């Protein structure tokens, strides 16, 4: 059975939850339709214990534990030592583990570190196992496969697929008798809609969060004009584009489409609990579509989700997060088999639901479709399905230094909002520091 370790700082309720999960009965294995059975017994002789580490909340822990126990039911010699925590401090803890050479066997990462971890040789190259289908990616969308590939090598497998979305307060808009935001609005139309919402509410709430420091929004805005955030290991845009972006949001603030600077900074980190649509300060916020269920749990108002402003083709099949194996694991084949199981097995996909986003495998999505009963998860899935055939080509995963670039963009936007810098001064500082971060 899995040995469960609660996250650092977990409260007693979380400990009780995980203790209960550890003692739950094994799930029975059954037949699958159109999905890998994922039950390949490890070639490792004798018992194998794998350490697994991810970020998330209690719900993610509960579902992931169930899926891992299902794997153990089919592979009785394999057990799991599990650790999880919130996203804050997660990568700092991984960095400490990497420095000591004791990274867990299986880890959850996102695109902010995929290239860096590849270049630092922290994660295992899965290319050979993909080639002979021990890690079977044939059921994944091509763009999702590409987004786990660094320099032609498969370094991680998407744990879920997500999209950038506008999450809006449906109840509030009904109260204000305002229309919901539409898919594929232009950015000008979106800001005009947000201004009208602020006016309809007599300033009690603002129409939208300020997206000037949101790298997702900037990236999609660039792609809607034929640009890119990155070109290889360099920025894909220059001063003119960034000044235009910042000026777009200056006009939005002047029109009162967004709240004040102090409120905006609360949400700049992107945590669902601090999103302004959740705290009731705006009618809409930018978020990942897979975050919709968590955001809905944080508010009594009904939330909806629609695509970002601009053409749907600016979006791509994006990994919400990945499963990756530690390069120094003593059980590389077993870890790879677990990754394959979590991403291609129909029953595991049914257990995991859409908590990390849509299952990466199209076959598993079809298999699990009828079993997802949570209405908010179904709402998020329906949004993804509505633009699935309109997505554009996936770019390469962001280069090393991406996490620093994201932080620098937030800082530049905040300095403009509080009038410490003009747009040109903030742009020049950002470009200088971002170029240095990418060169490091």
TrEMBL record:
InterPro entries in UniProt: Bact_solute-bd_prot1, SBP
SUPFAM superfamilies (UniProt xref): Periplasmic binding protein-like II
Coiled coil: none
Pfam family, one: SBP_bac_1
Name under which the protein is recorded: Extracellular solute-binding protein
Natural source organism: Micromonospora orduensis
């Amino acid at each position: 059975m899995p040995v469960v370790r609660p996250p650092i700082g977990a409260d007693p309720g979380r400990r009780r939850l995980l203790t209960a999960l550890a003692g739950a009965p094994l799930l029975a294995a059954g037949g699958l339709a159109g999905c890998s059975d994922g039950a390949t017994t490890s070639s490792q002789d004798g018992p194998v214990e794998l350490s697994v580490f991810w970020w998330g909340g209690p719900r993610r822990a509960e579902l992931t534990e169930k899926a891992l126990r299902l794997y153990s039911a089919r592979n009785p010699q394999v057990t799991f030592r599990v650790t999880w925590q919130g996203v804050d401090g997660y990568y700092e803890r991984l960095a400490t583990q990497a420095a000591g050479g004791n990274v867990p066997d299986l880890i959850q990462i996102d695109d902010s570190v995929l290239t860096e971890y590849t270049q630092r040789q922290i994660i295992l190259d899965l290319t050979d196992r993909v080639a002979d289908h021990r890690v079977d990616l044939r059921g994944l969308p091509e763009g999702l496969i590409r987004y786990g590939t660094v320099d032609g090598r498969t370094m991680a497998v998407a744990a879920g697929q997500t999209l950038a979305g506008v999450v809006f307060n449906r109840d509030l808009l009904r109260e204000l008798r305002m229309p919901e935001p539409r898919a594929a609005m232009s950015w000008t139309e979106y800001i005009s809609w947000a201004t009208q919402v602020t006016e309809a509410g007599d300033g009690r709430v603002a129409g939208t969060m300020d997206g000037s420091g949101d790298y997702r929004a900037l990236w999609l805005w660039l792609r809607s004009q034929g640009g890119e955030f990155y070109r290889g290991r360099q920025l894909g845009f220059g001063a003119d584009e960034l000044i235009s972006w910042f000026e777009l949001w200056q006009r939005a603030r002047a029109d009162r489409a967004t709240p004040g600077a102090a409120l905006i900074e609360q949400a700049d980190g992107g945590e669902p609990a601090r999103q302004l649509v959740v705290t009731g300060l705006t009618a809409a916020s930018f978020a990942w579509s897979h975050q919709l269920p968590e955001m809905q749990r944080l508010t009594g108002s009904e939330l909806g989700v629609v695509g970002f402003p601009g053409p749907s083709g600016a979006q791509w099949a994006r990994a919400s997060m990945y499963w990756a194996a530690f390069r120094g694991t003593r059980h590389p084949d077993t870890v790879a088999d677990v990754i394959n199981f979590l991403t291609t097995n129909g029953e595991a996909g049914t257990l995991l639901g859409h908590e990390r986003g849509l299952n990466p495998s199209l076959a598993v999505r079809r298999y699990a479709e009828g079993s997802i009963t949570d209405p908010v998860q179904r709402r998020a899935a329906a949004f993804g399905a509505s633009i699935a055939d309109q997505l554009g080509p996936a770019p390469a995963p962001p280069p090393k230094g991406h996490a620093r670039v994201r932080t620098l963009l937030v800082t530049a936007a905040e300095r403009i909002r509080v009038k410490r810098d003009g747009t040109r001064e903030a742009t020049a500082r950002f470009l200088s520091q971002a170029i240095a971060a990418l060169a490091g």
